[in-house]
Amino acid sequence: MIVWLEGEANYTRVHYRDGSFTLVTHPLQWFDQKLDFIRVHRSAIVNPMYVREFKQRKSRAGWVQLHNGKILPVSRSRLTYTDTQLKAVQ
Fold this sequence. Notes:
2 helices; DNA binding; LytR-like; LytTR_DNA-bd_dom; LytTR family transcriptional regulator; globular; alpha+beta
């Protein structure tokens, strides 16, 4: 099961629940269009089912913590979207 995706130029590192990952030859945008996940940053997409916690600082960027403890930044421009999307799946 995919937990989160990390963009690396025209490649994407797909991170799985068991801690393994695969590097694939599709840009992050390709996955953003195909999967019902949340784009939290220009270089990261998360599976909302594996988000443990979401925090946002006053008018600044925030972060999401995944089930495995990994913390990923949420950009300012994606704070409201991330909050709305996470509330929709709860």
